[in-house]
Amino acid sequence: MTILTFPSLRAGQGPGEPYSWRKLSNTQVHESPLTSSVQTLALPGARWACTAVWQNLTPADSAVLRAFMYSLRGRAGRFYLHNFARPSPRGTVAGTPLVAGAGQVGATLNTDGWTPGATLLAGDFVAIGTELRVVIADATADGAGLMAVTFDEPVRSSPADNAALVTLQPACVMRLTSDDIESSFKSSVLGPLETFTLDCVEAFQ
Fold first, then answer.
1. Residue 90 falls within a domain, yes or no?
2. Residue 159 is part of which domain span?
3. pLDDT digit string (tens) for 65-95?
4. Residue 152 and residue 104 share a domain
5. How far apart are CA 68 and CA 60, in angstroms?
6. Is there a single domain that holds both residue 109 and residue 158?
7. Tens digits of residue pLDDT in 121-149
8. Cα 205 vs. chain centroid, distance in angstroms?
9. Whole-model pTM?
10. Residue 112 CA, distance from chain mean position
11. How many domains does the chain have?
């Protein structure tokens, strides 16, 4: 299946308000019927979800978005999407960051290729392949360009040695939450401008 790229609109127009990029954690909660004590288990499978609204779209922009949405064929399609609110990191990213060593698992990865002194800060988004992660602890590259980066979630699969870390518009793979394409578009009786709402959730590869 071909993974599409979300289209760019005129002058790179992004969504407005309301906008929501959120994480859907995957947990199990067991409550004792006798004592009411609670055990909570964190499971793999946390997903990203996004609701984004574009208002006052021109007919040309609406046509581009309609063509893209129709090409997805509802929930069957897949596309790359980044968090429009955080397209770039707060840290002083420099160099060519890569995974340093094969076989790594867990939520902390050893990386290299950084410019010495480069930083990632808590809250920065990073993509490794199709996995989108959030940095949860500030990290600084040492004099050899090495940096251990700790993420919010363990990687789903061990990345290859020298796999690239994407820090500019890092994206994950999404799918629509509904097959009803036309409900995403709202027209105005006062003119040709339209409102488009995108509702999507991460689709693991």
1. no
2. 95-166
3. 999 999 999 999 999 999 999 999 999 999 9
4. yes
5. 13
6. yes
7. 999 999 999 999 999 999 999 999 999 99
8. 14
9. 0.89
10. 23
11. 2
